[in-house]
Amino acid sequence: MRPGTKAAVTIHVLFAAIAIMLATLGTVSAQTERAVYVLQADGLACPFCAYGIEKQLGRIDGVATVSTDIESGTVTVTMSPGASLTEKQAKEAVDRAGFTLRGFKWKTD
């Protein structure tokens, strides 16, 4: 294949398209990753308690899901892609719900 021929140009365009796709794969997966936080809250004793704390945490911008394990007193907060939760935001929401935040950690698999 000689440089400048139609086949050579097509191959160069194809390689460029593949390079762009490979470069954006990392970006797309980073944007779809969801931060997950595990909070420890004192005072969770019943489903009504869980509802109250989930409602307050769910009001935070970027929160996708909130689930509570009453038995262990933990609340798992999953954020929307690209969003994060600060300890201050969590503490304020837990306080508004009438509980005390005792632990805040980012969950890693």
Describe the structure.
By secondary structure, the protein is an alpha+beta fold. It has two domains: 1-32; 34-108, Alpha-Beta Plaits, CATH 3.30.70.100. It has helices at residues 6-32, 47-58, 87-96, and strands spanning 36-42, 63-69, 74-79, 100-106. It has a four-stranded antiparallel β-sheet, covered by helices on one side. The longest helix has 27 residues, at 6-32. The radius of gyration is 23 Å and the shape is elongated.
Helix content: 40-55%
Structural class: alpha+beta
Percent of residues in beta strands:
15-25%
Poorly predicted parts: 12-17, 26-30
Identify the CATH class of the largest domain.
Answer: Alpha Beta
Query: What's the Cα radius of gyration?
Result: 23 Å
Secondary-structure element pattern, one letter each: HEHEEHE
Q: Kindly report how far apart the N and C termini lie.
A: 50 Å
Number of helices in the DSSP assignment: 3
Structurally, how many domains make up the residues? 2
**Biggest sheet overview:** 4 strands, antiparallel
What's the shape? elongated
Q: How would you state the average pLDDT, rounded?
A: 82
Strand order of the largest sheet: 2-3-1-4
SSE inventory with pairings:
Layout lengths: L5 H27 L3 E7 L4 H12 L4 E7 L4 E6 L7 H10 L3 E7 L3
Antiparallel strand pairs: 1-3, 1-4, 2-3
Task: Summarize it.
The protein is an alpha+beta fold and 109 residues long. It is 45% helix and 25% strand. The longest helix has 27 residues, at 6-32.
